[in-house]
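B., you asked whether I could sanity-check this one before it goes into the benchmark set. Here's the sequence:
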Amino acid sequence: MPFMRYEYTGTSKAKGRFVIKTKGFKKGAVVTVSASDKYKGKTRTSAKTKVRVGSQTQYSNAAGSGKISVSKIRSTSRVVKGKIALKTGSAYISYGENSASLDLNKDGSFSYTLPSPKKGGSSVYITLHDNSNGTIAGVKKVTVSASKPAKPSFMKGSADKKAKKIQIRAKEKGTLVVQSSKKKIKTTKCTYQSKGSYFVYTVKVPAKAGKVRCYLKTIAGKSKTATIKRK
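And here's what the prediction gave me:
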C-alpha cells in the first residue's frame, strides 16, 4: 500500500502554545512538528521535532480522567453519551482506527452516534484535552458490554435452493456459524444496515444444500439456532 502522508497547520497562541485538530494517529506513528514565521518578508522555519504516538491508556490514570463520565455502551447500541467536568476542555472519541471531536453542550454533556454498533468486548476511548495549556488531561476507556445474542434470521431469497449465497440478519457483530448437511461455515464479515439497525452476513452455501441452520456467537455466549428448509 502507498504511504499516506497528512499535513496539518495551525496558529500558536500566547507563549507559543498551539492546538491543532487532526484525524487522529495510530499507536506507534511518528508525528513531525515544525514552526515557521515571517521576518522582514522572509519565511523562517524551525528545526523539526519528532514525537511517537503512544496509547490512550497511558493517560487513564491522569488527574483529568476523573472528570470524564460515560454511560454504558452496549453491543446493540450506536449512541455514546457522557459528560466532562472541565470548562476549558474539549473532548474526542476514538474506536478502532477512527476518531472524531465531540460537540459539547454548555454543561459539558455530549452524545455521539457511532456508524454502527461496536463488537462486545471492544474498547471506546474518550480523551479530554485541556485547552488552557494544550495538554491531554485524561482518558476514559469504556469496554463495550454484551448480553447473550438474539436469534439471527434468514433474509428473503434464502429458501431458494438454487441460490448460491444466502443472507442472514443479526442484531450485533460476532461469529456467525452456518451449518448444512454438506458443510460448516464460520464468518465474521458483515455490513450494517442503519435503516433497520441490523447486521447482514452473506454466506456462500453448497449447491443444493437442503436444511440450513445458523447461530451467532459473541463473548456473551451463543444465540438460539435459526433453521430454514431450502426448496
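One thing to flag: The mean pLDDT is 87. Otherwise nothing jumped out at me.
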